[in-house]
Design brief:
GO terms for molecular function: 3'-5' DNA helicase activity; ATP binding; ATP hydrolysis activity; DNA binding; zinc ion binding. The chain is of the alpha/beta class. A hairpin with a 6-residue loop joins β23 (546-548) and β24. α3 (154-166) packs across α4, α19 (656-668) packs parallel to α20 (690-696) and α20 (690-696) packs antiparallel against α21.
Length: 819
């Protein structure tokens, strides 16, 4: 087995003869957070030590200096495969391909190979096969090829390598992210035995010499002209399994095992009674937008298009018409949505317009997800819909990628590899020379800045369909005692709910915190009941009388008295959706109320059930977390209430104002979509804050102008590039010492390379302990992502953490939160 340096490995990938390349001129480094080109770094990556992947502990030498007898010398005609692993050591390593496997093994397949002194073979991913020689090195053999066909085509293999380099994650780990575990485990499949003739020219004399039942079986196989299952042969030839087995023993028939999907029917969206899809005439804004998108599709150059349309402007209809244009050319599309709750509604609209629609999301059973994935790979669908992981859908003829609500933070993966679906989608689109549409009423500042610098085209849709007015927004200052009540609902909002119910209108109430009470505190000694593993307050859930940590799921029964001083009089502070639900039902006893949050939406189909009931008018008041703020279209919603607009505003995060503006604007857009108009009431302690003021006026451009000026002072994205390193360990002092040592490595690498990179920390983050691990973080800032990535790679390449320290670190490129 031969260990490749990082530069050797990556140089080989620049020579891949795949049809889709990642052109450097289409990913300009001037826009580091959205459009930067990590391929400049990719092609000039410094050599790495054996087994070393950026961001992971360097491995010790795995093999003896003198090769043992089982190793084979590499000859000129030896075929080799480059293999990477999702577990350390991550590789890449070269293996010899046995002659009998040469035609079977291709990049994008999984293999079993020996690794080090492990007794059990390891499963790895093949990234390249080649012919070569290296007389001074010896290789071990590939033990087994696990897949009949590549799970990743050449384009997706290339995407894996780009993601591995840019996000500094092991390539094997990225492969595991692209290919769902349900596919890797063959969920919902079964192995069936097929029988076929060993040769077609069997003499009549030989057939006639066989017993009658064997004659019937062999004549049936000759007539069928293809392999048949034992059941098919027994029915077609009117025989038992015995004659078939006899033919196999005589060498006239051979059996082969095939893995197939179990009989299954794809789940289709059940339309609500009376629900139809009418193809309306486009508005002027929609027509102009569609024309620009069609031009981009026809140009076949690869282009990013920011579709900035106010809520209710008809962006979804533009998406559908654009996909219809793509489908005419035999191509397909991916539509990414931020919330699983949006998937049923979005799927319903698309299924009424397209024959083949597939959905991929985490609430599907493994068998369902595998079934859909195979449909997609066989090119049986025209549209794939799903959250961020659907960006990897293996469509053979992809022609368009759409991100709906592209600003949403849920497109960022929270665990390794910490990719952003918007950036990955952009890289995939540019490599295939197809358009990517970024649709939203509140663009991310990264996308907005890309337009202002010429790296994306802006398409504006400033008016609602039917020229309906934007809803009036009323700010309620919660510092004003006259407006406050003893509960969560202010006097103005209470009266507005009463008026709306009298008009037979529907109401949406947003509170972005689940649970009943966010703190459980003793009024006598001040003790706060907290999670022992996360050092965060437990949230009281009235259902079941539980106190739950929303970060690690630690759960106890809510204590009836103080655990510290035994005082009998525990108090519940703060507000969650459960508590709001109790108050709403008490204030408006005649109203039918439903709650949507991650506690109530755990079961498959629960989103669809509640939203269908709301659409039909069975529910008067829908309250919940941010999942009710996006993309929902209900014409009878006359009132939207934001219970606490400050919940995300004062987080220690430079994106806090952007999140607040987006959330308030998006939920406000759920009303006023029908003929009766609508209104919005926003409760806040900070009515003067620029983000809330801009949201109340539906003024995105003013918000973007103010926020860009605020970020310019500190070179925050999109005006600069940021990386976050999170160090975590079981012992606080050891973890902090490791973080300080890592900072010194960063400083040394920066000085050696001569890059202008600002290094902040280490310091405890707001969540200083999570899941039993103490945490410190380091921030690195630079003007562009290239120098930043090079400093991190250079530093971590030489950084070794003793195994006894039990400390790990993760690299988060372009972080979306600082907790």
């Amino acid at each position: 087995m031969m260990n490749l340096t990082g530069s050797e490995f990556l140089t080989r990938f620049t020579m891949l003869t795949d049809q889709a390349q990642f052109p450097k001129d289409l990913l300009p480094s001037a826009i580091p957070s959205l459009m930067s080109d990590p391929l400049d770094e990719f092609e000039n990556m410094p050599p790495a030590d054996k087994g070393q992947q950026p961001g992971h502990q360097k491995q010790e030498e795995l093999f003896e200096t003198a090769p043992p007898p089982w190793e084979l010398a590499v000859q000129d005609d030896v075929a080799t495969a480059t293999i990477v692993f999702s577990e350390a050591p991550h590789g890449p390593y070269d293996y010899r391909i046995p002659d009998e496997m040469r035609d079977d093994l291709k990049p994008g397949m999984r293999v079993k190979v020996p690794l080090g002194h492990r007794k059990k073979a390891m499963i790895g991913w093949c990234t390249e096969t080649k012919m070569g020689s290296s007389a001074s090195r010896t290789l071990r053999d590939v033990s087994e090829v696990l897949d009949d066909d590549p799970l990743c085509d050449a384009h997706l293999v290339r995407l894996v390598m780009w993601m591995s380099h840019y996000y500094q994650a092991p390539a094997g780990q990225v492969f595991d992210t692209l290919i769902p575990s349900s596919v890797r485990s063959n969920a919902g499949t079964r192995e069936r035995t097929y029988f076929k003739l060993t040769r077609r020219d069997i003499e009549d004399e030989l057939i006639e010499s066989l017993p009658p039942k064997q004659q019937q079986a062999i004549r049936f196989l000759i007539m069928s002209g293809r392999p048949m299952t034992s059941a098919q042969v027994m029915i077609g030839a009117d025989c038992t399994i015995s004659p078939i087995k006899s033919l196999e023993k005589k060498g006239l028939v051979v059996s082969e095992a095939r893995r197939e999907m179990a009989t299954s029917t794809p789940m289709r969206w059940q339309l609500d009674d009376g629900e139809t899809e009418t193809k309306h005439e486009l508005t002027d804004d929609q027509s102009v937008a569609l024309g620009k998108i069609k031009d981009a599709v026809d140009a076949e150059e690869g282009k990013a298009l920011l579709l900035h349309g106010v809520t209710g402007s008809g962006k979804t209809e533009v998406y559908i018409r654009a996909i219809e244009h793509v489908v005419k050319f035999g191509r397909s599309a991916i539509v990414l949505v931020p919330e699983i709750s949006l998937t049923p509604q979005t799927r319903g609209r698309f299924e009424r317009r397209f024959e083949g629609v597939a959905v991929l999301h985490s609430q599907m059973t493994p068998a369902e997800r595998h079934f859909q994935w195979q449909r997609i790979r066989r090119n049986e669908v025209q549209v794939v819909i799903g959250p961020r992981s659907a960006v990897f859908a293996p469509l053979p003829r992809l022609g368009l990628i759409i991100l709906d609500e592209e600003h949403d933070g849920s497109f960022k993966q929270g665990t390794a590899p910490r990719y952003h679906a918007r950036k990955v989608a952009h890289a995939r689109a540019m490599s295939l020379k197809i358009p990517i549409i970024l649709g939203t009423a509140t663009p991310s500042l990264e996308s907005w800045h890309a337009c202002s610098t010429g790296h994306a085209d802006l398409i504006s849709m400033p008016s609602r369909v039917g020229n309906r007015p934007m809803p009036d927004v009323q700010l309620v200052d919660l510092k004003n005692r006259d407006d406050r009540t003893s509960g969560a609902i202010s006097r103005p909002l209470h009266q507005a709910v009463v008026d709306t119910l009298e008009e037979n209108g529907q109401i949406i109430l947003l509170l972005n915190r689940r649970g009943f009470a966010t703190t459980i505190q003793c009024p006598s000694c001040g003790h706060v009941v907290s999670c022992p593993d996360c050092d965060m307050p437990l949230t009281h859930h009235r259902d079941g009388g539980k106190a739950v940590c929303h970060y690690c799921d630690y759960t106890i029964g809510t204590p009836p008295w103080c655990p510290a001083c035994r005082f009998d009089g525990i108090r519940y502070g703060g507000l969650g959706t459960q508590r709001l639900e109790v108050e709403v039902k008490s204030r408006f006893p005649g109203a039918k109320v439903a709650r949507m949050d991650s506690d109530t939406m755990r079961r498959p189909g629960s989103h669809q059930k509640v939203l269908s009931a709301f659409r039909s008018g069975e529910i008067n008041i829908l309250l919940g977390t941010q999942m009710i703020a996006k993309g929902l279209d209900f014409p009878n919603v006359l009132l939207v209430g934001v219970i606490n607009a400050d919940s995300a505003l004062h987080f220690p995060d430079f994106r806090a104002a952007e999140r607040t503006f987006g959330l308030v604007t998006q939920v406000a857009g759920r009303t006023g979509r029908g003929d009766r108009g609508g209104r919005v009431i926003v409760q806040t302690f900070s009515p003067e804050h620029p983000a809330i003021q801009a949201a109340s006026r539906h003024d995105y451009e003013q918000f973007a102008h103010d926020e860009m000026n605020a970020r310019r002072k500190f070179n925050y994205p999109p005006l600069g590039s940021v990386a976050r390193i999170i160090i975590r360990g079981g012992v606080e002092e050891v973890t902090e010492s490791t973080a300080e040592s890592l900072v010194r490595h960063f400083e040394s690498a920066r000085d050696k390379l001569g890059h202008e990179v600002r290094i902040l920390g280490p310091a405890p983050p707001p969540m200083s302990k999570l899941k039993g691990k103490y945490r410190f973080h380091i921030l690195l800032q630079a003007v562009a992502s290239g120098p930043l990535g090079e400093v991190i790679r250079t530093a971590t390449d030489k950084f070794v953490i003793p195994e006894k320290d039990d400390v790990q670190y993760v690299v988060d490129i372009d972080p979306m939160e600082m907790l």
